[in-house]
Structure to design on (113 residues):
């Protein structure tokens, strides 16, 4: 399961961003075409966080929709899974513009005020 190595990278990025502070939460954006299994990602998070600044952190996962752009009618659309025809002209060569992402979008650290 490659989610373990993916989560290792996300955690590294979060720990670097927190600069030594304990991390309250990680917010991660996962696209449906990323090939990432959200449950496996959560499992990897539970397995990897003990002993790190993210030991007690919450994992917030934001799942996105696929985003396509049809070059024929210049339309942006978000098709249901495994159904990528343009809803306007039926073209199947739409350009993928989103939905395959896996990225750390935010971390929460405690207020030091
Ligand atoms: Zn089209």
């Amino acid at each position: 399961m490659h989610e373990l190595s993916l989560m290792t990278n996300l955690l590294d990025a979060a720990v670097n961003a927190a600069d030594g502070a304990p991390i309250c939460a990680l917010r991660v954006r996962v696209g449906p075409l990323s090939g990432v299994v959200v449950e496996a990602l959560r499992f990897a998070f539970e397995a990897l966080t003990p002993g790190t600044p993210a030991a007690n952190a919450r994992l917030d996962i934001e799942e996105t929709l696929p985003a396509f752009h049809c070059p024929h009618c210049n339309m942006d659309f978000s098709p249901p899974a495994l159904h990528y025809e343009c809803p306007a002209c039926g073209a199947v060569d739409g350009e993928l513009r989103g939905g395959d992402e896996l990225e750390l979008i935010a971390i929460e650290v405690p207020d030091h005020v």
Notes: The helical segments are 3-18, 38-48. The first strand starts at residue 25 and ends at 30. The chain has one domain: 3-108.
